[in-house]
Design a protein that fits this description.
Elements: H1 3-20, E1 36-41, E2 56-60, E3 70-78, E4 85-95, E5 132-138, E6 143-148, H2 149-156, E7 168-177, E8 182-183, H3 188-191, E9 202-208
Parallel strand pairs: 2-9
Antiparallel strand pairs: 1-3, 3-6, 4-5, 4-7, 7-8, 7-9
Length: 210
């Protein structure tokens, strides 16, 4: 028997033997494909310098016109040719910054490469919680959101006079797919802008002083 035939028989029989030895079925083996939300921040609207890959804008906490400062981003989705989105539920919440562990400012960019921030700008994972309210259900894409600090404060019931350094407004997304599935959460390996991951499950604007 030639080596070529031995290799061919091994290639056919080995997977059969391995499958026959299998004793456990795992949930992750029954995977399906999903779409992901994508955002693009209008960095020119940011009151303080930012970078597009950080998915972050800023309000100037010390400015007299802070309430009228704008945050703008465009929302779309990507299904990678596997699935389609019928709508995205957009949620908005206000969050107090933790005492420690906030991302550095100015935003530090990883080297080598010089493209992505060195740290996530908002906590992951970004599942919709009790602090988030349904802001809008979007059915036409891309959709551009342009909102002021005052408008977001009114919507979330936030007193702007009590906002502190590094507090932030955060938009989160739930996808409704054409096949009926509702995608309510994405993990770090989908939405981590510090690693240039494939999706953007949240986008926000942070309060900072110059």
């Amino acid at each position: 028997m030639t080596m070529k035939k031995i290799f061919l028989y091994t290639a056919i029989i080995l997977p059969i033997l391995l499958d026959a030895c299998k004793t456990e079925d795992y949930v992750w083996e029954n995977y399906t494909y999903t779409a992901v939300p994508l955002v693009a921040v209008n960095t020119s609207k940011s009151a303080l310098p930012t970078v597009a890959t950080a998915n972050t804008s800023f309000f100037d906490l010390g400015a007299a016109n802070m309430a009228s400062q704008e945050f703008e981003y465009a929302l779309r989705w990507e299904g990678f040719g596997r699935t389609e989105v019928t709508s995205i539920d957009v949620y908005l919440g206000f969050y107090k910054a933790p005492a420690t562990g906030n991302p550095p400012y100015p935003i530090a960019i990883s080297q080598p490469g010089g493209l992505y921030p060195t740290a996530t700008q908002f906590p992951l994972p970004s599942r919709v919680g009790s602090a988030d309210k349904l802001y809008e259900t979007v059915t036409q894409f891309p959709k551009t959101f342009t909102v002021t600090a005052g408008q977001m404060a009114t919507f979330t019931g936030t007193d702007l006079s009590k906002v502190a350094q590094n507090d932030y407004f955060l938009f989160k997304f739930i996808l409704n797919l054409k096949d009926g599935r509702r995608i309510v959460g994405f993990q770090e390996n989908v939405c981590d802008e510090a690693r240039g991951e494939v999706g953007d499950c949240r986008v926000g604007v942070r309060f900072r002083r110059k």
